[in-house]
């Protein structure tokens, strides 16, 4: 059975890029641009991996990550931050926020897929 | 001028000053420094030298009139040279008290010698015993005075005793009538007494003059020094405060006595003030404390600057011998340090400003980086997918779709780059406008047309209102459009689906008033102040819900300034925002962008559009 990846991303073009890439590699995807909806979807779908943008409308991806990590039932789901915040210190801050991995935009397709595989095969 | 001065000086040289100069050379070095000591030494030496020399000069005359002297007379005259020796003693040693005591002894000895041989206590010389304590009184030493008084009384008692018990030698003054001798004794004693009185008067005057000079000096210090000197008891109550405080606080010194000063200390600083005084009183060390003091200003000045001044108080325990009253324990010096505090504040402000600029630059870089990386991600990602089309099994239609997406992202990237360039040009002051008369109404309609699609996609009503007879404006039409597009797209961006954005133009006085009103998220009062800073977007960094570089309003601000106009914002969180731009109808003012308009925040709900103008366009 195909693994499910939840994509949280507010830029439509980037959302499409990630979806197409993951689906081309045989994953099922589900997406949202809203942090609150991301939490609901996580509870409902129990995805195998979450790709998390950090700058989101209303609530930041870091906040959403903390909610997920605070929930004993969701905690085990790996969260990979994919973000355009690539200044000095950003990676440390985001990893401290509970994300298992950090990918900066623009992504390299090879590294992106490799990172996803590392978590869910 | 140069000639008259020596002439005047020569007139001032009098006999007395010559004598005084001669005397001064006789003074012991230790007495030369202190004016009062000098006067005392002079008063000791002068009459003694004068008296002795006169007596010695009188000796030959006496001999001539009287014939060969008796042994006693020779001894008496020889004794009269004793004051010369005493003057020499004082001149060499400077021991003033000792010289006075020796002088008393010498005088007592002489009087005793003469009196014993001329009838004891009834002798004409006995009256001279009175002179001994009088002379000693000039020394201003209690010890000398006590000694002289005891000596005189002792001598008197001795004479009485000798007379009473008939132990006196036969009187040698038989050849002159007793009354003549008595008269001579009283007269000489009287003369000497007058001389003493004169010396006492001179000494008294000298010491009063000295005191006055001293007081003048202290008054000069106290009145002309800007520092204030005060004495406190340990609980902070003021016992004394120098008059300089009036210039500092505008309050007479007497009103600050007791707790008057404390009452003027800023409430927040009172504990520090009291602690410093009590520590200084107890700990025995100097303390320093800075605090604010209320200053009494004349009524007309009271509305201006703050009423508190910063002062520094340095206090230390009062030295035990400083003539303090028992209650006074601390002496303090107070200085106005408002200027220094102001400097410190200015420095702090400049530092905060620099930090703010630095933070703003970092935020700028982070934002530019973020805004460039977002479209680049799509461009690089999709192009890499096309490169791997075989591996990913992409058909031609898919590849074409990706190429289109890459193009879209590229266009977006270009607009971001252009915005940044415009902004930096404006910041560098090299952006210029070209004013020409143009009709604002078509320009406004045109802008709304451009943005209608965006508004419709966002589900927002875009309403434009402008009267038909809107006059031409002297300005840069490109800049005008840019202002409108930036303001309207901002309004659309920050308004929820179902809301509305209204653009209106009308003449107000000498200005064209542009108003863009939305029913969007609004701006918090805190953020309102920073709105229009480059790259600033209200809200937290990671929580930005809206795309964009945060350059739009910043650019508008500059363009408005270039037209000599003003921009103001009224907003309430959750209810909406109204931006009002006033552009002068005829061009004037700044052409260079070094002048940047300030946004005037008006933190209130957006005002209703008042006059009912013409609806130009509506899109939903």
UniProtKB/TrEMBL annotation, chain A:
<dbReference type="InterPro" id="IPR011006">
    <property type="entry name" value="CheY-like_superfamily"/>
</dbReference>
<dbReference type="GO" id="GO:0000160">
    <property type="term" value="P:phosphorelay signal transduction system"/>
</dbReference>
<feature type="modified residue" description="4-aspartylphosphate">
    <location>
        <position position="53"/>
    </location>
</feature>
<dbReference type="InterPro" id="IPR001789">
    <property type="entry name" value="Sig_transdc_resp-reg_receiver"/>
</dbReference>
<keyword id="KW-0597">Phosphoprotein</keyword>
<keyword id="KW-0804">Transcription</keyword>
<protein>
    <submittedName>
        <fullName>Response regulator receiver protein</fullName>
    </submittedName>
</protein>
<dbReference type="InterPro" id="IPR050595">
    <property type="entry name" value="Bact_response_regulator"/>
</dbReference>
<keyword id="KW-0805">Transcription regulation</keyword>
<dbReference type="Pfam" id="PF00072">
    <property type="entry name" value="Response_reg"/>
</dbReference>
<feature type="domain" description="Response regulatory">
    <location>
        <begin position="4"/>
        <end position="120"/>
    </location>
</feature>
């Amino acid at each position: 059975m195909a693994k499910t990846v939840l994509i949280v991303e507010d830029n439509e073009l980037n959302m499409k890029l990630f979806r197409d890439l993951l689906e081309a590699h045989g994953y099922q995807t589900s997406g949202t641009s809203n942090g609150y909806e991301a939490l609901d979807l996580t509870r409902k779908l129990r995805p195998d991996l979450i790709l998390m943008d950090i700058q989101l409308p209303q609530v930041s991806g870091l906040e959403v990550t903390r909610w997920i990590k605070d929930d004993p039932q969701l905690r085990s789901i790996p969260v990979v931050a994919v973000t355009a915040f690539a200044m000095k210190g950003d990676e440390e801050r985001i990893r401290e926020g509970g994300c298992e991995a950090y990918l900066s935009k623009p992504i390299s397709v090879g590294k992106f897929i490799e990172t996803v595989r590392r978590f869910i095969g | 001028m140069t000639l008259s001065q020596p002439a005047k000086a020569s007139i001032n040289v009098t006999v007395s000053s010559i004598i005084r100069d001669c005397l001064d050379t006789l003074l012991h070095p230790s007495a030369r420094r202190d004016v009062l000591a000098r006067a005392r030494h002079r008063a000791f030496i002068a009459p003694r030298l004068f008296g002795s020399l006169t007596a010695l000069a009188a000796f030959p005359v006496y001999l001539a009139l009287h014939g060969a002297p008796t042994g006693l007379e020779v001894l008496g005259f020889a004794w009269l040279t004793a004051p010369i020796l005493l003057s020499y003693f004082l001149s060499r040693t400077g021991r003033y008290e000792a010289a006075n005591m020796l002088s008393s002894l010498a005088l007592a000895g002489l009087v005793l010698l003469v009196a014993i041989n001329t009838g004891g206590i009834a002798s004409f010389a006995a009256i001279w015993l009175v002179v001994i304590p009088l002379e000693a009184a000039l020394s201003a030493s209690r010890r000398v005075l006590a000694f002289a008084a005891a000596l005189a009384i002792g001598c008197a008692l001795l004479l009485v005793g000798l007379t009473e018990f008939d132990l006196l030698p036969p009187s040698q003054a038989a050849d002159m009538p007793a009354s003549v001798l008595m008269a001579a004794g009283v007269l000489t004693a009287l003369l000497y007494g007058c001389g003493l009185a004169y010396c006492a008067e001179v000494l008294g005057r000298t010491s009063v003059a000295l005191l006055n000079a001293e007081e003048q000096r202290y008054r000069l210090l106290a009145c002309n020094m800007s520092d204030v000197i005060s004495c406190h008891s340990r609980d902070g109550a003021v016992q004394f405060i120098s008059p300089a405080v009036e210039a500092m606080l505008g309050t007479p010194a007497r009103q600050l006595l007791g707790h008057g000063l404390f009452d003027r200390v800023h409430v927040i600083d009172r504990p520090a003030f009291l602690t410093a005084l009590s520590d200084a009183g107890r700990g025995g060390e100097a303390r320093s404390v800075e605090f604010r003091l209320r200053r009494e200003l004349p009524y007309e000045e009271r509305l201006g600057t703050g009423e508190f001044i910063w002062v520094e108080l340095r206090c230390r325990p009062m030295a035990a011998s400083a003539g303090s009253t028992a209650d006074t324990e601390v002496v303090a010096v107070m200085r106005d340090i408002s200027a220094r505090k102001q400097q410190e504040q200015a420095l702090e402000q400049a530092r905060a400003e620099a930090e703010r600029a630095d933070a703003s630059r970092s935020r700028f870089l982070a934002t530019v980086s973020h805004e460039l990386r977002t479209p680049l991600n799509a461009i690089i990602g999709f192009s890499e997918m096309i490169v791997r089309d075989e591996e990913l099994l992409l058909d031609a239609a898919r590849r074409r779709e990706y190429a289109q997406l890459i193009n879209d992202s590229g266009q977006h990237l270009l607009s971001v780059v252009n915005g940044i360039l415009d902004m930096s040009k404006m910041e560098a002051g090299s952006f210029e406008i070209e004013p020409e008369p143009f009709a604002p109404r078509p320009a406004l309609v045109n802008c709304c047309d451009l943005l209608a699609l965006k508004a419709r996609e966002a589900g927002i009503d875009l309403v434009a209102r402008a009267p038909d007879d809107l006059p031409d404006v002297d300005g840069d039409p490109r800049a005008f459009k840019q202002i409108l597009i930036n303001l309207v797209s901002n309004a659309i961006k920050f308004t929820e689906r179902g809301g509305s954005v209204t653009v209106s133009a009308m003449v107000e006085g000498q200005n064209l008033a542009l108003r863009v009103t939305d029913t969007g998220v609004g701006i918090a009062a805190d953020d309102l102040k920073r709105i229009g800073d480059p790259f600033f977007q209200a809200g937290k960094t990671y929580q930005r819900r809206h795309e964009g570089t945060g350059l739009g309003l910043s650019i508008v601000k500059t363009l408005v300034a270039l037209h000599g106009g003003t921009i103001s914002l009224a907003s309430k969180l959750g209810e909406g925002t109204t931006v009002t731009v006033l552009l002068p109808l005829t061009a004037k003012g700044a052409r260079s962008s070094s002048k940047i308009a300030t946004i005037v925040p008006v933190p209130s709900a957006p005002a209703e559009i008042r006059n009912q103008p013409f609806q130009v366009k509506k899109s939903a």
